[in-house]
Amino acid sequence: MDISSKTRKEVGALGEKVAAEYLRRHGFSIRDRNIARKTGELDIIAEHEDTLHFVEVKTILVDEFPQEKSVADDYDPSLNLHEAKIRKVARTGEWYVLEKNWEGEWQVDGVLVWLRRRDGMAKVSYLPQIV
To answer: Domains of the chain (ranges plus CATH)?
Structure first.
């Protein structure tokens, strides 16, 4: 399935779906998705081993997956995972913790998703505790 014609919003939604499935397969339970407040948006809220994880997902369309050791800037969605964005996620996470009366540990994580244009195959990289 060629995904070249997908809009930026559709690509982002697909990346979040891939990230949620990746987290599920690695033992996380998904509590919420796409929670928006004045302070920002939380892409995925997951729980794993009594810790709440606020996961920011960054997705990019590529012709080919980057090689492990030499990720070129064109292929690096982490460039969009900058300090200001992470702070917004952390502030929104604080709001969520208060609203839900969460009393356990929590952290902000990142998931990078590369989607191959020609077939929609995905490569995922999980970045724990990016704050």
So the answer is: 8-127 (3.40.1350.10)
